[in-house]
């Protein structure tokens, strides 16, 4: 039997949900590793809806679970029903939905609140010593919940290649150790069984982002 891995989504679309390419890469690499993905999302309203052509919020209302079902091809469950028994690992792709729908990081930074359902799931996997994979902005969830953990969101010096590098500094302010890594690399916090990679925190070719996520997924499955 292959490993069973929970994948938690935050909607559908980089600006207000889960980053679609990252989510797809996670699912493809899990399949390649012979693992079974079980997709979950919270049944809550999105913080807001963004027009991805204009990059501007709209007056529309959307539900995180309903939108995430687009990526999961309808094969998805309410996060409230996640039972850690029988699951071997957890992966949360990035996208602004992590910072808007799974937490309030987008508006409050290090003073954010992680949604109770998401925090409960992260703490359950951590307490059971089951591996957790996080990419792009999603490592901020671990930074908030597990002080002192080691993570990467890429580099900590802002430039054209690393437009979101200030995130690393904020994570350090939460008491975490940030480790600079290239987009094709991962960092493994052995003690906490956290595997992180920067993905679209880096302005890189999409195949490099895909490769970095592949390394993250492989390590998560290996640790499971």
Principal-axis shape equals globular
Which architecture does the CATH hierarchy give at level 2?
A: 3-Layer(aba) Sandwich
**Continuous helix count:** 8
DSSP strand (E) fraction?
A: 15-25%
Count of strand segments: 11
- How do the strands line up in the largest sheet? 5-2-1-6-7-11-10
Average predicted local confidence, pLDDT: 97
- CA-to-CA gap between the ends? 13 Å
State Rg: 16 Å
The CATH topology is what?
Rossmann fold
Name given to the CATH homologous superfamily: Class I glutamine amidotransferase (GATase) domain
How many domains make up the coordinates? 1
Protein name: GAL3A protein
InterPro entries: Class_I_gatase-like
Tell me what you see in this structure.
The chain is of the alpha/beta class. It contains 8 helices and 11 strands. It has helices at residues 20-32, 64-71, 96-100, 105-108, 116-127, 139-145, 166-173, 206-223; strands at 4-8, 36-41, 49-51, 56-58, 76-78, 89-92, 132-135, 150-151, 177-178, 187-189, 194-197.
How would you summarize what this structure contains?
This protein has 224 residues and is α/β, with parallel strands linked by helices. It has a single domain, classed as 3-Layer(aba) Sandwich (Rossmann fold), CATH 3.40.50. The protein has 8 helices and 11 strands.
Descriptive keywords:
alpha/beta; 224 residues; Rossmann fold; globular; single chain; two-stranded antiparallel sheet
């Amino acid at each position: 039997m292959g490993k069973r891995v929970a994948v938690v989504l935050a909607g559908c679309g980089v600006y207000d949900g889960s980053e679609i390419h990252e989510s797809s890469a996670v699912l493809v690499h899990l399949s390649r590793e012979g693992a079974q993905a079980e997709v979950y999302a919270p049944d809550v309203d999105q913080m807001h809806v963004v027009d991805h052509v204009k990059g501007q919020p709209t007056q529309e209302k959307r539900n995180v679970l309903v939108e995430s079902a687009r990526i999961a091809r309808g094969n998805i469950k309410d996060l409230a029903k996640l039972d850690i028994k029988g699951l071997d690992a957890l992966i949360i792709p990035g996208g602004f939905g992590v910072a808007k729908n799974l937490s309030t990081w987008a508006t409050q930074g290090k003073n954010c609140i992680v949604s109770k359902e998401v925090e409960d799931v992260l703490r359950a996997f951590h307490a059971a010593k089951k591996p957790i994979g996080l990419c792009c902005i999603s490592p901020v969830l671990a930074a908030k919940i597990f002080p002192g953990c080691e993570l990467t969101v890429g580099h900590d010096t802002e430039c054209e290649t690393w437009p979101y590098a200030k995130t690393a500094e904020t994570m350090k302010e939460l008491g975490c150790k940030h480790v600079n890594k290239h987009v094709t690399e991962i960092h493994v916090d052995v003690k906490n069984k956290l595997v992180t990679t920067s993905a679209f925190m880096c302005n890189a070719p999409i195949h490099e982002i895909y490769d970095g996520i592949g390394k993250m997924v492989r390590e998560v499955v290996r640790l499971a």
